[in-house]
Design brief:
Elements: E1 6-10, H1 12-20, H2 23-37, E2 40-41, E3 45-50, E4 57-62, E5 67-76, E6 79-89, E7 112-118, E8 121-122, E9 131-133, E10 150-151, H3 154-162, H4 177-184, H5 199-207, E11 218-221, H6 224-238, E12 251-254, H7 255-265, H8 278-285, H9 296-308, H10 316-327
């Protein structure tokens, strides 16, 4: 795409929809979006200024007689960012449209307080009140949930055109300045955050760094779900890239499976009868002096969290005491 002043971003739902299109439909959509990235839409457009929702302005760009593409405008540093939300049937932002609209975006179905039909739009000519999309660095409003925005560059379009059907293909995430700062750091790194804050995604992107391509890489997690999820993201990111046939792809393990592999490699085996589950732990814990003070399941979860990498709330003096006890064999 030739334009340099406009940043095209799309969400996963829109990306998944593109993957279902045939080659002709993909090329046709790309041609349309090249105009948009150059700051022009000349096929007719409806502009809706919605009630409430922080005066959100939604553009419904005419793709064909039957379809309109929804987008909003925002700013990112010195560039105009164009956020592509989805494609809907003409005059039907309703039940059928939900299949190709992202979750947590009820504003796309709100009634407008003002509406105008335009034969064409030059984005450079629009006044500031048309720019209603918050920056990706900002917290999303309470009325809808956050979106993961993807970069629609020439390289990513090439990969989308090569993909057939609804196969698993991941497009590069548009990184916030904080995420980019983390990824630029050399290891080792301790990354702490709440559930859903993006730790796993950042870890997978770290494996994707070019300078690590020939290195031995391991992704280790406690959760079988996270192992599968992370490997799927990585495989989707490298598809149709130079790293797809990497001679040394990263290994994805759960802690349990890695321990089993290590034991197998040393000629030993894992005795599953000795594995302690919650019920076994409750029986062991029942005879402990603190059993009446602390709930067994809470203690169990705390131990699991530490194994998974949580940082216990220990102060410096307590750490010194523990180290001293360890050195004197009193711990």
């Amino acid at each position: 795409m030739a334009g340099q002043n406009y940043l095209l971003l799309l969400n996963n739902t829109f990306k998944d929809h593109i993957l279902t299109l045939d080659a002709h439909e993909k090329r046709r959509l790309r041609e349309k979006l090249e105009y948009l990235e150059s700051g022009l839409w000349d096929a007719g457009i409806r502009v809706k200024k919605l009630k409430g929702i922080s005066n959100k302005v939604v553009f419904e760009a005419r793709l064909s007689k039957a379809e309109r593409m929804l987008f909003t405008l925002g700013r990112h540093r010195e560039k105009t960012a164009i956020y592509l939300w989805g494609i809907v049937k003409h005059d039907d932002v309703g039940a059928k449209a939900k299949a190709i609209l992202p979750a947590n975006t009820p504003f796309l179905q709100f009634e407008p307080r003002a509406e105008e039909e335009l034969p064409e739009v030059f984005i450079d000519d629009l006044t500031p009140d048309y720019y209603s999309q918050e920056n990706v660095e900002e917290k999303s409003p309470e009325e809808y949930g956050p979106q993961k925005w993807l970069v629609l560059s020439d390289e990513e379009w090439r990969r989308l055109l090569l993909a057939g059907g609804a196969e698993s293909l991941e497009i590069q995430l548009f990184l916030t300045s904080e995420q980019a700062h983390v990824l630029a750091k050399d290891p080792p790194i301790l990354l702490s955050g709440t559930a859903g804050s993006g730790k796993t995604t950042i870890a997978v992107y770290y494996l994707f760094r070019g300078e690590f391509a020939d290195a031995k890489r391991l992704f280790l997690t406690y959760s079988p779900f996270l192992r599968r999820f992370s490997k799927r993201i990585y495989d989707g990111l490298v598809r149709y890239t130079d790293m797809e046939n990497d001679a040394r792809p990263p290994d994805f393990f759960t802690l349990r499976d890695l321990m089993t592999e290590i034991l197998k490699a040393s000629g030993a085996s894992f005795d599953e009868t000795r594995e302690v589950g919650l019920k076994d732990f409750e029986a062991i814990y029942a005879s402990h002096g603190l059993a009446k003070k602390y709930d067994a399941e809470l203690v169990w979860e705390e131990i699991r969290a530490i194994i998974k990498g949580a940082k216990p709330p220990l102060n410096a003096n307590r750490c010194k005491k523990l180290v001293s006890g360890w050195r004197s064999a009193e711990l």
